Every structure is written in C-alpha cells, then in structure tokens.
What does this fold into?
Amino acid sequence: MGRFVNPDNSAFQVALNSKIYVDKTGLLEYTNSVLGTTEAYICNSRPRRFGKSYAANMLAAYYSKGCDSREMFSEFAIGKKEDFTTHLNKYDVIHIDIQWFLTNCDDIDNFVAFLTKSILNELKVIYPMVITSDITTIPQALSNIREKTGNKFIVIIDEWDVIIRDEAAKEKVQEDYINFLRGMFKGVEPTKYIQLAYITGILPIKKEKTQSALNNFDEFTMLSAGAFASYIGFTDDEVKALCKNYNKDFEKVKRWYDGYILEEYQVYNPKAVVSVLLKGSFKSYWSETASYDAIVPLINMNYDGLKTSIIEMLSGDTIKVNTTTFRNDTVNFKSKDDVLTYLIHLGYIGYDEVKKSAFIPNEEIRQELKNAVESKRWNEFDSFQQESENLLDATIDMDSRKVAEQIEKIHSQYVSVIQYNNENSLSSVLTIAYLSSMQYYYKPIREMPSGRGFADFVYLPKPEYTDEYPALVVELKWNKNAKTAMQQIKDKKYTESLSDYTGNILMVGINYDKSGKKHECIIEKYSKNK
It folds into this structure.
C-alpha cells in the first residue's frame, strides 16, 4: 500500500462519510466492461464541483490491491452485479493527482521529473527485483513489470489539465507534460501494460494541429457525455429523492440548479444541490468554490458578436455555437465560438448537443454570469439594461403604447438589417428585450404547453416578487395584429397552465408589421373568475 501506487480506500471513504452521498458506482460497471480493450482509455472532463475527484477516488478504491473494499461497495449498485468481485481490488493502481504534485513541486520546470521520481520510488518498493537503476521513466517501469510478472496497471490521473489551464505561459512545461502522457499511453507498448487509463479534469485533451494529443482516448465531455451522462452531476430522479428526504421544494431546486443537458438527462451541479439541502438558502454557491474573475477576461474579448451573445443568453435565449474549432487550451482563442465552448466546459454555459446551441442552464449560473458582466461595466449591457427596465415597467403598468415603442426601439438597435424582417428575429428580440426581468422572474418558458396549444413566452416571477410582479403570458404575431395575438391567448386557454399560480397574470399580445416596420401591443389583466 502506497501513497500513489496501490493506495488504500481512505480518500473515497471521506465521500461516503459525508452527510449526502449519491451512489455513482454504476460507473464501475462501465469501466469493468472495457478493461483490457481499446475502449479502456477514457478522458472524462467536467466542471468544478461536478464530482471529478470523487469518481477518481472511487475507481482507485475499487481496483487497488492496496485495500479490501468489499464491505465498502457491497451495498451500492456495483455490489449487486454478478461480476462485482471479479475485478475488486485485483489490480496494481497508480493514482495521480496533478494538482497535488504541482502544488508540492519546488520547480515547475522539473515537474515531470518530480512526478516520475515519486512514482518510481514506490514501484521500486513493490517490485525491487524488477525496477533496476537503469530504469528512469514510468513507462519503462510498467513495461518491465508487465514483462517480468504479467501484471497490468490501472492508471488514474485526476486534474489532468491543471498544467494546461494554469501554466499556459510555460510552453516547455506543457510540452514536457504532454510528452509524458504520450509516453504513458500512446503506441503499441502501453497496450501491453495498461488495463485501464482514466484521466479526468475540466478540459478535454489538448488539440495539436488537427487532432488530440492523445487520440486513442475516448472522450466524455459536457459537449458529448455519452455513456457517462448520468454519472456527471446529479440527475432529476436523484434530486427528487434528495428533496423528498430533506423536505425541499423540488421545482424550486430545479429552477435554481438544473439545466445541463447530457444525452437524455437533465443534470444538476452536485455541490449546489448538496449546499442548498444542508444550508437551506437558495443562492449561488458557485462563487464559494471558484471566482468568476477567471471568466471576465474571456467575455470581454473583442470578438464580433460575443457580448451580444452573452446578453441574449442572460435574457434566456439560446445561440448556435460551433464547438469544433476550440483547441482545448486557454490561450488559442480565435473566435467567439472558442470562448463560448470554453465556458461550456467550465460549466458557465449549458450545451444542447442535438441543437448545437448554448444557453445559461439555471438561476445560479445566471447570477454568476450577470455579476461577471456587471463587474466590467459593459456600456452595451448598461444601456440595454436601462431600455429593458423601461419596457418591463411599461408592461406592468399596462402601457401598451409604450411597450410597442420600446420593443420597436430595441428591435431597430439590436437586430441587424439583414435579420430585421426575419420572422424568428421578433422572438429573439422579445427575449433580450425583457433582460431586466431576470432579476424578478425565472428564465422565460418558451413554447410552454398550455391549454389547447403552446404559449410563445411565459414569465413566472420568483416567489419573493409575486406581490409586485405579475406572471406574463406573451403571444407574438407576424404581419397580423395584436388583437389576433390576444384572442389566441384566450381561445387557446394559455393561462390554464398557471391555474396553481396565485398572483396576478397579464396577457400580452404583440404584432410586428413587416411592411411598416411597426410594432403593436395589447395588454389585458387575466381574471380567473371569467
């Protein structure tokens, strides 16, 4: 039993000792199924506080020869599988936390040498007759051990990308580190001594020129989670069960912390969910674990359309993103899409793989991103915020004429001439026009099933604002008239979806006349007694 080679299970025991632990041992069923195959090279990237280290510690506890974990896992999902004991504590495991090594390295230029010496020293203790003085690298050592004993290794690397993210200016250090990883995992020889390679961090593997530096790895990311989707964060069902146990309003937890879309799963930030269940307060817990200062320089990059895209997402809209050009590092940003892709990996933006679109996933992240924007006092944001506040005030005052004027002003100022008469632009305009509502309302619900159809927009105020701010049911029309929009709200009974809502409801009909480039609005108060 060593610190890095064949560790014990104490690190995972810490997770099990916590007040809340959600069983994610199903991940072991997947890794068991790929052991010793070409699919046994796995890179699982996810944002901070999404359980990266928990997963790495779990793998080490399950596979390591340095402990007996039968009792630890027997009551979990993996313990119910027929092959539970087939691979349990049967392998030589190397578990490396790059963050720890980086912190304890006296000279960053000698990082790989420090890491290599630390691992080799432990391998020499375990295999003294195999690791001779002429062996100076970890791959050499593993190859020799495999040749002499037949033993294969499971290698787990946590926070694999810290050097890529935090030491961007140290090109030689990064080059040495990437070459170290190549030596460990690429080529024919590693297939002889690697039973499983599992590396985890925030970023996918760094791209060099047109391909990954380790192109033999399967990658499971926030862009495409594949079989790992339900093991990255908490799922809907898991959060429902937790809310029931802790007597919390599931729908409120969902609005605040849900929103990441991974395959067929809605995924929550585990840290946020655990925090709200134990501490009780609905707020952003993101800033307690990572400062938004790191993203401020990114969202202020002078790429065409970047700031507008941020404003659109803050307002509740989605935007198309090309994620293929990002090189998975923190220095080679070439476009708006590169910045947005990085923000997706950091967890500040959600991503819909099917629609290839990005969005702000929940109320927690909306607050964080809004704080980041406001900290730099964007002129674009400040002026737009004021126009939006005027629009919201006019809506609540039921001043139809002023609402039409404000929407027309925003439409002309923030939509390009090419798109101005695009039917879809009116929907986008309305989304960003009510930007200021995000302080008082949840993210607008688009195409909400309601009555006999789908309402274009439904704005529900947060519970603390229901006395001052009514719910808004908005219908848009193109080249018709506002009366038609209002009549559709009534005929289709769009307000029926809000039957449990106890506050006031305003019905808002808006029309855009293409030929005259004029907007028209009608606002009526909904009466549940009618």
Notes: Residues 164 and 174 are 7 Å apart (CA to CA). The first helix runs from residue 10 to 17. The mean pLDDT is 88. The radius of gyration is 27 Å.
